[in-house]
Amino acid sequence: MNILISNDDGVFAPGILAAKQAVEDIADVTVVAPDENNSSVGRRLTLFKHLKITPCTLDDGSEAYSVSGSPADSVVIGTEYVMKDKPDLIITGINQGVNISSDITSSGTVCAAFEAVSLGIPAIAASLFMDPKTSYRQDENGEWHLNYDFTLAKKVLHDIVLKIKNEGFPDGVDLFNLNVPSNYESEEVKITHLSHKMLDKKVIDNTDEQKRELFKYHLKDNQNDDDLIMITPDLVSEYKKGSDGYALMVEKRPSLTPLNVDMTCKNLKSWQI
Question: Which of 37, 148, 190, 218 could form a Cys-Cys staple with 247, CB 3.0–4.6 A?
Answer without folding.
Answer: 190
